[in-house]
Design a protein that fits this description.
5 helices, two-stranded antiparallel sheet, 2 strands
């Protein structure tokens, strides 16, 4: 349960960092960032996974680049659903999704190292 809350907090921080780096991505408050992080996760887990499954053949042809477009669209959808979270257009959503994924990945690696979940298994 604590790991879920830590991941959620890391996503909210990653979204805040994204608003500072990507022009056109705005969040009005910390609470809006927390709610937006939850909605982004839920949208990606439901609609995003369904779209990725349906567009799998296109993903193979584009070597996975279509997934970046789908992630950008899911970022835009989350912005439409959450008051206080705004994205000015597709390019802002596209780059916002990329930056948020990168920052989130880095924070996830740091959390795994801090909590001991990412222990090196070499013997």
């Amino acid at each position: 349960m604590i790991s879920i809350l830590l991941t959620w907090a890391a996503s909210a921080i990653a979204l805040y960092v994204t608003t500072q780096v990507v022009p056109g991505v705005k969040v009005s408050s910390i609470m809006a960032a927390v709610i937006a992080a939850l909605v982004i996760g839920l949208v990606n887990a439901t609609v995003g996974n369904l779209l990725k499954l349906l567009t799998f053949p296109i993903g193979c042809l584009t070597l996975g680049l279509s997934r970046l477009v789908i992630n950008g669209l899911m970022f835009m959808l989350a912005a439409k659903l959450v008051d206080g979270f705004a994205v000015s257009g597709f390019l802002a959503a596209f780059f916002g999704a990329i930056v948020m994924a990168g920052v989130g990945w880095g924070m996830d690696m740091a959390l795994k190292n801090l909590t001991g979940d990412g222990k090196d298994q070499k013997r």
